[in-house]
Amino acid sequence: MAELNRPPEHTFPPHERLSQPERTRDLKLRGEYGITLAEYDQMFEKQQGVCAICHCVETASDGYKGTKRLAVDHDHKTDQVRGLLCQACNHVLGFAKDNSATLIEAARYLDETQHPL
Q1: What is the CATH number of domain 20-113?
Q2: Each residue's pLDDT tens digit, 47-105
Q3: Are strands 71-74 and 81-85 parallel, antiparallel or unpaired?
């Protein structure tokens, strides 16, 4: 098996050293969205750890470790990252196929059909 041509871990400055789970997340974010883990963390801090739409913290279970992380939302046509969303809001956008007219009509429908208790 060929050796990978990588510098030893100790040659990286401490702020650039990532644990194995962080390295895995970083590679996944780079591959899927073209952002680094540091950029994800900056967005998370900018959004104060809440969803860009509903402004709530993520509550969806990841099935074994606890709570899922906020999802990276991106434009499927341009691949441009828009922000971080909770699973529920991310699914809403997905089910609406990122069509703002559909979402506006859904909001109108809800407003018009709400009945006082």
Answers
A1: 3.40.1800.10
A2: 999 999 999 999 888 888 789 999 999 998 999 999 999 999 999 999 999 999 999 99
A3: antiparallel
Contact 73, 51 (CB under 8 A): no
How big is the chain by its Cα radius of gyration, in Å? 19
Task: Supply the DSSP string of 4-55, one letter for each residue.
Answer: P----GGGS-GGG---HHHHHHHHHHHHHHS--HHHHHHHHHHTTTS-TTT-
Tokens linked to 3 = 């050796």
Beta-carbon count within 10 A of 78 CB:
8
pTM of model > 0.90: no
Distance of CA 61 to the CA centre of its chain: 15
